[in-house]
Design a protein that fits this description.
It contains six helices and no strands. It has 160 residues and is an all-alpha fold. 8% of the residues are buried.
Length: 160
């Protein structure tokens, strides 16, 4: 029989949260008090969490390490963006007209400004999509941008 001064055994479980008495006995603070940051020391220097531990957590989770295939998709979109910029400048020099009003505004900054601003905007978008790769909307946007930029570069090539 337990002595009256001893605390009762823990009755907490995933279905029954710990009592206030049990919470008071914990020595260390809970490391899960703050949400996982999008950017951490592990984002660029190599992370620890390479995959989600439980299947229901896959959708909407953040991981520290990105797969090589993810790098391939992101680099492909960046390369197609660069190709689009290059071919746009070539077609404009040959007498073509830019129909995209955003690209037209960027073209008024000059060739370097156009390529730099377009690359920076797409690079920022790719960074956001990469960080959110386990979200359905981000994966869909990455697939759509990959297909759209590939089709756009193919279209540019057909104009020659």
């Amino acid at each position: 029989m337990p002595e009256p001064s001893e605390s009762p055994p823990s009755t907490s479980s995933p279905f029954h949260p710990p009592s206030q008495a049990e919470l008071g006995r914990r020595r260390n603070s809970d490391r899960r008090n703050a949400p996982t940051p999008r950017f951490s020391q592990f984002s660029l220097l190599g992370g620890r969490r390479k995959r989600v531990q439980r299947r229901p957590e896959v959708e909407g989770s953040f991981l520290d390490v990105y797969s090589p295939m993810m790098l391939v998709w992101v680099m492909w979109v960046a390369l197609m963006n660069l190709g689009d910029s290059f071919f746009t400048l070539i077609h404009l020099q040959a007498g073509g007209v830019e129909v995209n009003p955003v690209a037209d505004a960027l073209l008024r900054t000059g060739r370097f400004g156009f390529v730099f601003a377009k690359g920076a905007l797409i690079g920022a978008a790719l960074l956001v999509l990469t960080l959110h790769k386990n979200f359905w909307l981000a994966r869909t946007a990455l697939w759509i941008s990959t297909a759209a930029y590939t089709a756009l570069v193919i279209y540019h090539l057909t104009l020659f």
